[in-house]
């Protein structure tokens, strides 16, 4: 990519049929809907895509289908996280060969008792960078249980050629983003936040240039970023306040199920199935989600009707 990515880079949900099989046709409709939402890029196979419930064969199918269907309309970021360095390296090569614009990966982890030392983490990312020629986004998320210090992240940005984007989802993300930007300087090309933009204003104040949310309301969240980066902080704050009730409900009550429920309601996909051991959301939570979504007149809620 010649121009650094900014704005909103949402995660695409993985649609399943009611019987749990992946739905490649539904995946294509999800991607089309997200492009109509005005996204700046799309991330596939992330945690909000239920990547931890997909087989290797399913991952390969979804990667190929997604990249072929998007066909360069927007950049596609492929998540390749795994504990084994050989596996992430192979996934990286495959994604790049199919047209991925960027890779996203968490540090290697397999429970709190099996976390590599910093040298192993550095080498993990170095091996992927050596295997490809596209940018890598480091996902710094509590889910991994791995503590990525600012000095380590800054060193990775300085010394690993393709590590230049960072998605910060840790507690006190704004402070960590600010410290990373100061420590890494020009090597921090894309400082991003996550968590459905629940801390977006603070993170923008800290210097982030974009956000990776779900596919629920990108068209409503993107103006927060664009207004802020254009210097109109009042407009950014007003838009964030408008979005915040739904952001909070998704972030704290719904999780990855939210985008699927709204997309099914809006005719984007035929099923909001999540794979066991995940469970469908309660009727109470669903009712509030749809009510808040209707108030914002979301694209996903009307796209297929």
Describe it.
The chain is an alpha/beta fold. It has one domain (7-232): Alpha-Beta Barrel (TIM Barrel), CATH 3.20.20.70. Helix content is 47%, strand content 10%. The protein is built from 11 helices and 8 strands. The protein has helices spanning 24-36, 56-70, 85-98, 118-131, 150-159, 173-184, 200-206, 218-229, 233-254, 257-265, 283-296; strands spanning 7-8, 42-44, 76-79, 102-105, 136-140, 163-168, 190-193, 210-211. Strands 1-8-7-6-5-4-3-2 form an 8-stranded parallel β-sheet. Helix 8 (218-229) packs antiparallel against helix 9 (233-254). The longest helix is centred in the C-terminal third of the chain and has 22 residues, at 233-254. The chain is globular, with a radius of gyration of 18 Å. The two termini are 35 Å apart. The relative contact order is 0.14.
* Number of helical regions: 11
Overall mean pLDDT stands at 97
CATH topology description: TIM Barrel
How many domain regions? 1
Separation of the first and last Cα atoms: 35 Å
Give the tally of β-strands: 8
User: Largest beta sheet: what is the strand line-up?
Assistant: 1-8-7-6-5-4-3-2
CATH H-level homologous superfamily name? Aldolase class I
Structural class comes to: alpha/beta
Strand content: 5-15%
CATH architecture designation: Alpha-Beta Barrel
Biggest β-sheet strands, sense, barrel: 8 strands, parallel
Q: Output the helix-strand order.
A: EHEHEHEHEHEHEHEHHHH
- Radius of gyration (CA) equals 18 Å
Can you tell me the overall shape?
globular
Low-confidence sequence ranges: none
Using the coordinates above, name the CATH class: Alpha Beta
> How helix-rich are the residues, as a percent range?
40-55%
